[in-house]
Amino acid sequence: IDPWFLAENSTRSRIISLAREINDSMPRHVLSLVSNLVRDIKNPIVTVLGVAYKGDVDDTRETPALKFIKLAENEGYKVKVHDPWVKSFEYPLCSLQEAAQDSDCLVLITDHSSFKQIDPAELSPIMRNRNLVDTRNILGHEEWRKVGFKVKVLGEGVHQGYPNS
């Protein structure tokens, strides 16, 4: 929200406005990544990992997770939420095991340091389908792939098709 405040009072604020517009469009972009992963699944269940606005805090004000959850529900997805820091949120919060149970896709939205410690081998057997979207690029993706997860990382593949990429 602070960048919008700065842009409001500056005639040379296009870069701030553009950055804010890109950030504001990310929940829809992340949903498109998820949609591609679950497109052939009937009644998909999506698990959001992290609803705080940034890692290792409990503050959910201005969180991009809320917009993502609402967009996913509008697409007909059931959404479960896990956040080890947040105590109260407008959607029910679950333990990691409850949130991952029968899920078709994990979507890491907040970069809590504890998420780096998640063992994908423990989640793999309880999930219906093994898909992961890491919007913060903080997980050990090879470890997830080794236990059968299809992994998408926000920003990955941007330079595909270009020489030396």
Based on secondary structure, the structural category is: alpha/beta
Strand content: 5-15%
Low-confidence stretches: 159-165
Give the integer mean of the pLDDT values: 88
What shape does the CA trace take? globular
Number of helical regions: 6
Strand order of the largest sheet: 2-1-3-4-5
* SSE pattern: HHEHEHEHEHE
Helical content stands at: 25-40%
Q: In angstroms, what separates the terminal alpha carbons? A: 34 Å
Largest sheet: 5 strands, parallel
Q: Return Rg in Å.
A: 17 Å
Number of strands: 5
Task: Write up what this structure looks like.
Helix 2 (14-38) packs across helix 3 (64-74). This protein has six helices and five strands, in the order H-H-E-H-E-H-E-H-E-H-E. The longest helix has 25 residues, at 14-38. Mean pLDDT is 88; it is low at 159-165. The radius of gyration is 17 Å and the shape is globular. With 165 residues, the protein is of the alpha/beta class. The N and C termini lie far apart (34 Å). It has a five-stranded parallel sheet with strand order 2-1-3-4-5. The protein has helices at residues 2-8, 14-38, 64-74, 96-100, 120-123, 141-146; strands spanning 45-49, 78-82, 105-108, 131-134, 150-153.
